[in-house]
Amino acid sequence: MQIKKMPATERPQEKMLYGGASGLSNSELLALIIRTGTSDKSAIRLADEVISYTNDNIGDLGMAEVRELTEIDGIGEAKACSIVAAMELSKRLMSGRQSAVRSRIRDSRQVAELLMEEMMCEKRELFMTITLDTKLRIQSKSVISIGNVDSAPVHPREVFGPAIRRGSSAVVVAHNHPSGDPTPSEQDIEVTKRLAAASEIIGIKLLDHVIIGNGVFTSMKSEGHL
User: Fold this and answer.
1) What is the SS3 assignment for 63?
2) Under a CB-based contact definition with an 8 Å cutoff, are residues 89 and 61 in contact?
3) In the predicted model, what is the mean pLDDT of residues 132-144?
4) 164, 156 contact by CB (below 8 A)
5) How large is the angle between the packed helices 156-166 and 186-202, nearest 10 degrees?
6) Cα of 112 vs its chain's centroid, Å
7) pLDDT digits (tens, 9 = 90+) for 82-126
8) Whole-structure pTM value
């Protein structure tokens, strides 16, 4: 199959070499990830169509899956995998930067702000543990369980394992509700009580269990469940 080359005016690689990445549009950056076009579409045109697929909301591209992207004419499995891989790497870089900041956890709102962008758009439930030192500064943030659309099974050993290995003084746990409604379920309440009981035995304080919704959150401690 003949691959269509970009005309000189559409070469984002040259723009990046001479002007840096900040001067490129979203379409041009995505075209660099896609790399090549097809017989009738340039890489820029394909990039435009991928962004249009997300209703011109580039943030939604981070939630796209390979099989969804291959529905776009001209985007095969290889290009779709490259796009999803780039989005995942971006998430991990963001997560790494947040974890590197040794901020002190003061309340549940701060926990929600830390995790909201990462968790509220997830289509599956993620259960996360944040470990804290004696001054309640963040040591690590890790996903310990990935579930389906309405549950993420967890066990106390998985929750407190990272804290034990790091010699942490306390932990905060959190999970998201893909429905966007952070109202605690009976299972959420049961898990919170089980983790609280385990924290007493282990000697690592469970400060809170935060449920992330769509721009809103619930603190199990504030609700009286902890």
Assistant:
1) helix
2) no
3) 89
4) no
5) 40
6) 13
7) 998 988 888 777 665 555 455 788 899 999 998 988 888 888 898
8) 0.57
